[in-house]
């Protein structure tokens, strides 16, 4: 048993954390409190901690202290962070790193919890933040570092079990907080790294402990953007979506496993998300083509000047807009409006790359999903150190991003233009229609898997069994409170005739409303709606 958290233990921790998250990735995804099919907390945490592990693996072996290696781990997590849970976890690691060389692990866990709270503008109890604070408070009961971590794990588990009492939405869904469960897994991995004790006690409503098997993970080390790193891993990160069957995915997994590392394949027939690091991006794409038709393809050169932190000289007079995009059609629309589009579920480093690649000294970033706002904000803060002023415009849907882009005016001061875009986005009410992935009690009643649900500003407003009927009913509800312009974005799974039926309904019921329809190509959501 180790008496202290040393550099070797940090390396073990990072590997064990990735292994634990990999085993429970899908179960974490299923803890999503909303009955929508794209809950991906487990995937976001796995990718975030995979980046942290790669950074630790690439750190110099003669690092001066445990804190220095932990800072490398935190830096890797920040640049690889996906979603709000990824950013908060990275900030938690950063707080731990800054304090661990001082008064011990209990004090470091205090600093980690405070750092996590500081990362959120409006902290909410019953989340990962509550679990982090409870772990820190419990750690002070330990007489040494192993005892402190044991106490922290127990305190975190107890706090996790209480999260449904603090957040009604968790109680209604019958689950605990997914981010909080992820932090419990991190602390359990820390305990195992420090003591060799493997203890994943079950908590009611938490991740199922039996029957869960994750994907294998190769621990080859590399990272991005840290002076303490030397890159010695695969040259390219390849990501794409693919529609295919389980048998083809098994063969694709085997092929990509031979080609590289950091392989993550998530989803279920017919749509899967693929992530891998390889030296031969062409071979990875050939494997994808053998399995089906890859789309929303992203290939990032991991040894690019961005990854190595090369100096940049942004033009202080130039402006640009970077927007996230989940769909080929949406990406084309954004590019046509003069924006730089980033597909998929980008990490902090990918958003930062896009910002710096514009060469502009003033950049507006528009997240098209509320779960991407923290990632975009983290990238904005990183860009400041490169001499770029970045403002994140609060958008939560592609239709709001399009509304914001429509009012851009370079004749205005940059800050005034950002305000105008934010006002335009705020004036555009957004909604989406999808199929419920789980049973849930919503403000519109109880929905069951397979029901068609319409969400307005993130809340379920309609439940039905016919897609066209629900879409038309959604437009009636939204237009009843006013509106002159409707924007419709059809998804990859939208059936033929849906747009025509909805457009005809609006023309009959709301004859003075203008309708613009575009193929968006987004997964999971047959229709996205904007009303201005």
Automatic annotation (TrEMBL):
- Where are the compositionally biased (Basic and acidic residues) regions? 207-221
Q: Extract one GO BP annotation from the record.
A: glycerol metabolic process
- The chain positions of domain DhaL read 8-192
Query: Is Kinase included in the keywords of this UniProt record?
Result: yes
Organism per entry? Catellatospora coxensis
* Leader peptide range in chain numbering: none
Q: What keywords is this UniProt entry annotated with? A: Kinase, Transferase
> One MF term from GO for this chain?
glycerone kinase activity
Question: A Pfam family name for this chain?
Answer: FakA-like_C
Name the domain of life.
Bacteria
What name has this protein been given in UniProt? Dihydroxyacetone kinase
Region described as Disordered: 197-225
Among InterPro entries, the record links this protein to:
DegV_domain_contain (IPR050270), DhaL_dom (IPR004007), DhaL_dom_sf (IPR036117), FakA-like_C (IPR033470), FakA-like_M (IPR048394), YloV-like (IPR019986)
């Amino acid at each position: 048993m180790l008496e202290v958290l040393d550099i070797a233990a940090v390396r073990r921790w990072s590997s064990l954390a990735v292994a634990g998250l990999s085993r429970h990735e899908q179960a974490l995804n299923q803890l999503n409190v909303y009955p929508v099919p794209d809950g991906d907390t487990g995937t976001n945490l796995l990718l975030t901690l995979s980046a942290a592990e790669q950074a630790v693996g690439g750190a110099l072996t003669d690092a001066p202290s445990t804190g220095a290696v932990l800072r490398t781990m935190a830096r890797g997590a920040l640049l690889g962070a996906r979603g709000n849970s990824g950013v908060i976890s990275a900030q938690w690691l950063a707080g731990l790193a800054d304090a661990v060389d001082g008064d011990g692990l209990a004090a470091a866990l205090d600093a980690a919890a405070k750092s996590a709270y500081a990362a959120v503008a409006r902290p909410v109890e019953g989340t990962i933040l509550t679990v982090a604070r409870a772990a820190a408070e419990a750690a002070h009961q330990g007489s040494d570092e192993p005892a402190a971590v044991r106490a922290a794990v127990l305190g975190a588990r107890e706090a996790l079990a209480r999260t449904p009492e603090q957040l009604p939405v968790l109680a209604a869904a019958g689950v605990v907080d997914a981010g909080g469960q992820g932090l419990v897994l991190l602390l359990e991995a820390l305990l195992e790294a420090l003591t060799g004790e493997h203890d994943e006690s079950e908590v009611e409503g938490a991740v199922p402990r039996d029957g869960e098997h994750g994907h294998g993970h190769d621990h080859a080390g590399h990272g991005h953007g840290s002076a303490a790193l030397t890159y010695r891993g695969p040259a390219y990160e390849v990501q794409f979506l693919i529609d295919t069957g389980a048998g083809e995915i098994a063969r694709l997994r085997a092929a990509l496993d031979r080609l590289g590392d950091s392989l993550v394949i998530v989803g279920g027939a017919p749509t899967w998300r693929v992530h891998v690091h390889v030296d031969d991006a062409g071979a990875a794409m050939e494997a994808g083509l053998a399995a089906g038709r890859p789309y929303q393809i992203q290939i990032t050169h991991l040894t690019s000047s961005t990854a190595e932190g090369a100096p940049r000289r942004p033009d202080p007079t130039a402006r640009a807009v970077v927007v996230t995009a989940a769909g080929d059609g949406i990406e084309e629309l954004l590019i046509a409006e003069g924006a730089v589009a980033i597909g998929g579920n980008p990490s902090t480093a990918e958003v930062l790359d896009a910002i710096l690649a514009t060469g502009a000294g003033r950049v507006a970033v528009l997240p098209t999903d509320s779960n991407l706002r923290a990632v975009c904000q983290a990238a904005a803060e990183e860009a400041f150190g490169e001499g770029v002023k970045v403002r994140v415009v609060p958008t939560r849907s592609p239709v709001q991003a399009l509304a914001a882009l429509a009012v851009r005016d370079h004749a205005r001061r940059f800050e005034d233009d950002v305000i105008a875009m934010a006002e335009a986005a705020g004036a555009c009410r957004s909604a989406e229609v999808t199929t419920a992935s789980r049973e849930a009690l919503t403000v519109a009643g109880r929905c069951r898997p397979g029901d068609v649900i319409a969400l307005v500003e993130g809340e379920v407003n309609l439940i039905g069994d016919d897609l066209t009927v629900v879409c038309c009913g959604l437009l009636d509800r939204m237009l009843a409170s006013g509106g002159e312009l409707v924007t419709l974005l059809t998804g990859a799974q939208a059936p033929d005739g849906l747009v025509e039926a909805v457009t005809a309904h609006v023309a009959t019921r709301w004859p003075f409303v203008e309708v613009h329809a575009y193929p968006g190509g987004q997964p999971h959501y047959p229709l996205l709606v904007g009303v201005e």
